[in-house]
Amino acid sequence: MKYYFKISIIVVISLFISCKETQQNKNITNKDTSIKTEKWTSLFNGKNLDGWLIKINGHGLNTNYNNTFRAENGVLKVSYDQYDSFTNEFGHIFYKTPFTNYRFRLQYRFVGQQVKGGEAWAKKNSGIMLHCQSPESMLKNQGFPLSLEFQLLGGVNETEPRPTGNLCTPATHVIMNEKLITDHCIKADCKTYHGEEWITAEALVNQDSITHFINGTPVISYSKPIIGGQFLDSTSKEIQEKDGQPLLGGYISLQSESHPIEFRNIEIMEL
């Protein structure tokens, strides 16, 4: 009996070890599978602006006025060190390819001082423009593309809340909580960042449903964007004729509004 009892114990222990190893292997497999499904693609090579198109108000396509946009040390910079003053040279740098369903993320930080001549509201103010019209379709004297702006803000004083991750709507409207929103800017549920620290901004775009994230936390969501509203009259007649049409995709651009800002780790994952 003792012999059979010992054999039984050995069998039970062997089965337990085998089951544990099988479960560990499954966990490793699942983990590896999860990692493999996240296929992020870098949109910025860190060395130059290859793959990007520039449009600055008052200038033609790909005229990089005063070297506003530049690549330095792995960072895409918006700089005004070659400006005497800012006179409405609002600009955008577009990635060359339009997208529809995707996750987009980058890190940004405001640096230095706003250039002379910049608007007070543009201090520590920039944006990631989603579902943009093409850069080629912008007029020479058009400051802002039709788009959904993932607004990036920094704190300018300790007493004024200035959350980042907001939504602004140049020539667009959206639905929030089942209501049509026609306000130009809608505040996100986010803290104010006052320093020059790097902040991670991410957008989850499922065609007509969009969520903004700051440092991994969702801060605002909206859906069913359409063309229309403020700034539409500053676009071409071809764009204006699309008033009321759904906006289901477009280009991604980064903004220059008179305060120096830096971007890095610019990536996309198509869904």
Structure characterization notes:
The chain is an alpha+beta fold and 271 residues long. The chain has two domains: 1-37; 41-270, Exo-inulinase, domain 1 (Jelly Rolls). Helix content is 15%, strand content 36%. It is built from two helices and 17 strands. It has helices at residues 2-37, 237-240, and strands at 41-42, 52-56, 69-72, 75-78, 91-95, 101-110, 125-132, 148-153, 166-168, 172-176, 179-181, 185-186, 199-206, 209-214, 217-227, 251-256, 261-270. The strands form two sheets. Strands 1, 3, 4, 6, 10, 11, 13, 14, 15 and 17 form a ten-stranded antiparallel β-sheet that branches. A seven-stranded antiparallel β-sheet has the order 2-5-16-7-8-9-12, with no helix packed on it. A hairpin with a 2-residue loop joins strand 14 and strand 15 (217-227). It starts with a helix and ends with a strand. Mean pLDDT is 90; it is low at 1-13 and 28-35.
